[in-house]
Design goal:
CATH architecture: 3-Layer(aba) Sandwich
Structural class: alpha/beta
Order of helices and strands: EHEHHEHHEHHEH
Radius of gyration: 17 Å
CATH class: Alpha Beta
Number of strands: 5
Distance between the termini: 13 Å
CATH topology: Rossmann fold
Shape: globular
Strand content: 5-15%
Largest sheet: 5 strands, parallel
CATH superfamily: P-loop containing nucleotide triphosphate hydrolases
Number of domains: 1
Length: 200
């Protein structure tokens, strides 16, 4: 029962692509819970004060969703998710320091072995200018304080993570696709991923 994950930095189009793939494959769709995090808007205004709270909330929320994945796989031939469990580790490695980082890693190491590994990860990459335009277009108020420098660091962190990723990985330059507005781009990208999944 193939389990496909779409991953990448803020604003790259993970959720949009995940919905397209799920529709194409008639798949179980798992979307990360973002706006329900009560610490997120405060984090963007004062990262140092809220980083640990925001990361632990995300870690536990995504862990619970990942456990529920087992049940969903009983009823669907495919599952598509718009996040990788390790994404929280990527963000935490940027945002936490010292004792909080050590404690976070201990919690993460306890939880991760209990989770299912994806059969294919689709990594969407994009330039910071593209990310900023897409973030502005979707108009989430809590994302307005996001700085260019933060997105640059995030892109570097994602690249570093996937440079050593051990598993089936398909990297896509999202700057070259408009899979939200352009039907041809949608069909081309979905076909590319489905073909890659079948070859995995």
């Amino acid at each position: 029962m193939p389990y496909i994950v779409v991953e990448g930095p803020i604003g790259v189009g993970k959720t949009s692509l995940s919905r397209l793939l799920a529709g194409e494959l008639d798949a179980n769709l798992i979307l990360e819970v973002v706006e329900e995090n009560p610490f997120l808007s405060s984090f963007y205004l004062d990262p140092e004060a809220y980083a640990f709270k925001v990361q632990v909330y995300f870690l536990l929320s995504r862990y619970k969703q990942s456990l529920d994945l087992n049940q969903g796989m009983l009823f669907f031939d495919h599952t598509v998710s718009d996040y990788l469990f390790d994404k929280d580790f990527i963000f935490a490695s940027m945002n936490l320091v010292k004792a909080e980082w050590e404690l976070y890693q201990e919690i993460y190491r306890t939880l991760k072995p209990k989770l299912i590994r994806p059969d294919l990860v689709v990594y969407l990459r994009a330039q910071v200018d593209s990310l900023l335009k897409r973030i502005a277009k979707r108009g989430r108020p809590f994302e307005e304080p996001i700085q260019r420098s933060y997105l640059e660091r995030l892109g570097e962190a994602y690249d570093a993570y996937f440079a050593r990723y051990e598993g089936s990985l398909h990297v896509i330059d999202a700057d070259h696709y408009d899979f939200v507005e352009d039907e041809n781009d949608r069909q081309r990208l979905v076909s590319e991923i489905v073909e890659r999944m079948r070859a995995a």
